[in-house]
Specification:
α3 runs antiparallel to α4. This protein has about 120 residues and is mainly α. About 70% of the residues lie in helices and about 5% in strands.
Length: about 120
C-alpha cells in the first residue's frame, strides 16, 4: 500500500499545477466557498452549516477520488477529463460538464440534507 502522506502531497501538487481551471478561478473559488459558508452560518446557524459543509466536503472528496482512480492519478482521459501528451508533457483540457454537474449535485444534496433532515 502506498504512503498516504505521499499520495496527499501528490494530489496537492497536481491541484496547484493543473490547467483544468484558470489560475484566477482556483483562487476565486476559495473565497466563494468561504463567503458562502459565512453567509450560510449567518442565516442558518452553526448546526446546519456544519452539516452542509461536512457533507459537501465528503461528497466532493469522493468526486476527487473517483476522478483520481478513473484517470489513473490524472494521467489518462476519462469522461470530461481529457489528457493529451505534447512534447513529452501531459496537457490537460478544461474540466467539463460531468465534473461540474457532480459538484452541483453535491451542493444541492448537502443543502437538502442540512435543511430537511436535521
Amino acid at each position: 500500500m502506498a504512503n498516504p502522506f505521499k499520495e496527499i502531497r501528490d494530489d496537492f501538487s497536481f491541484i496547484k499545477s493543473h490547467t483544468l481551471q484558470p489560475q484566477w478561478y482556483k483562487i476565486l473559488k476559495v473565497f466563494l466557498i468561504l463567503g458562502y459558508l459565512g453567509a450560510h452560518l449567518f442565516f442558518y446557524g452553526a448546526r446546519k452549516t456544519l452539516i452542509f459543509s461536512g457533507l459537501f466536503f465528503i461528497l466532493s472528496f469522493l468526486v476527487h477520488m473517483l476522478y483520481r482512480i478513473k484517470t489513473k492519478k490524472f494521467t489518462s482521459s476519462w469522461l470530461d477529463f481529457i489528457v493529451t501528451e505534447k512534447n513529452g508533457q501531459l496537457v490537460y483540457e478544461r474540466i467539463g460538464i460531468y465534473y461540474y454537474s457532480l459538484i452541483l449535485f453535491n451542493i444541492v444534496l448537502s443543502l437538502i440534507v442540512a435543511h430537511t433532515v436535521f
